[in-house]
Amino acid sequence: MIRPRPPSPRIPLADRHPLVHLPAYARKTVEQVSVDVARGPAIPSPCRVTGGSENATMADSLAAEQVRQFSYQGYEFACRILECPAPVTEPIVVMCAAFQNIRSYHRYDKYWHDSATIICMEPPGSYSPDPVPRTVGYDFDADALAYLLDELDLPRINLLGISLGAAPTHRFAQEYPERIARLMLTGAALGDTARRGAVELEHCLRLRRADEFGRKMVELCVNGDPTRTVRNREAVRRALLDHLSKASEAELVRYLAVAQRLADHPATLPGRISGIPALCVTGEHDELAPPDLTRTMAAGIDGAAFTTMRETCHVSFLERHADWADLVLRFFTDQPLAGLDYLTGLEHPAGRPEHGEKASSVW
């Protein structure tokens, strides 16, 4: 267990998330003229929501959101909350992944907000000059999530883990299954490729080579094999490279801590998960969290479903963002998943779930 420590100076919230303190009338203008890769590059994609522009929707959600700060064992973190006035399911809680922040999933507000409250949590110490030490595993982040839910008085949630954000998510499901209504892990089965990549990233981050770091990250996240069809590959590649290769000194310090922990700790620990409706999904051409490893992850969760998103790799939430958002909402609202044209077939590596009311409606 990590020892509590006094809070250390940290980058002001407005500097990390520059739209936090803007007045509502100014937020739309900023959204229109800036490309925030944290919420995804501007990639053409079919939209399942009609009425109003994306920029107007973004401005509305910015005006309605709350950004709150918390501290767990001396490590501060921020939480973004967008409340749904008439939810039809438990809150959707997203633990931000590596190299992301609480605005990384901003573009999905318009897909989810009518059905659920959305909560995005950054890992503790993400923006502190002294990040969580590399000796600390992801159980620390999982316990911080439990602390946050207590602070927000949330007994049960829909939990979404994406890429490295699934490491504490998976651990939380092992330790606190009674607090999860549904569990979705996407791009989560990080294996040897991710660990080796983390070691290489650590090297260039120590040397503060942002351009080299950006190129390596893109190589890891975007499948460059020309024989594989990947939606919006070049647009995603350009946007990620532009964003990551321009990382600030403070961001490089944070990214180094992320790479070190990934190099030193397995993303998941042994131990089954049971009693939770679960979906494990990855990109059809994901080399960082490949389908075989994701299928194995699903086999460790009783009744879990496994599938892949067609024509995507590790960043399917960017390459087919509307379809990915649709999948998340369908799963968290118990809608059928069979027959969706953007998925390969559904599998149940550990056997089908018991025939309860919710299980039969989902599968």
Description:
- By secondary structure, the chain is α/β, with parallel strands linked by helices.
- It is 38% helix and 13% strand.
- Strands 1-2-4-3-5-6-7-8 form an eight-stranded mixed sheet, with helices on both faces.
- Strand 5, helix 6 and strand 6 (180-186) form a beta-alpha-beta unit.
- Helix 2 (24-33) crosses helix 3 (54-64).
- The N and C termini lie far apart (39 Å).
- Mean pLDDT is 82; it is low at 1-53 and 355-363.
Topology:
Elements: H1 13-16, H2 24-33, H3 54-64, E1 66-72, E2 75-82, E3 92-95, H4 109-112, E4 118-121, H5 139-151, E5 157-162, H6 166-175, E6 180-186, H7 192-206, H8 210-221, H9 233-244, H10 249-264, E7 278-283, H11 291-299, E8 305-309, H12 316-319, H13 321-332, H14 357-362
Helix pairs in contact: 2-3, 5-6, 7-8, 7-10, 8-9
List the defining traits of the structure above.
363 residues, alpha/beta, 8-stranded mixed beta sheet, disordered N terminus
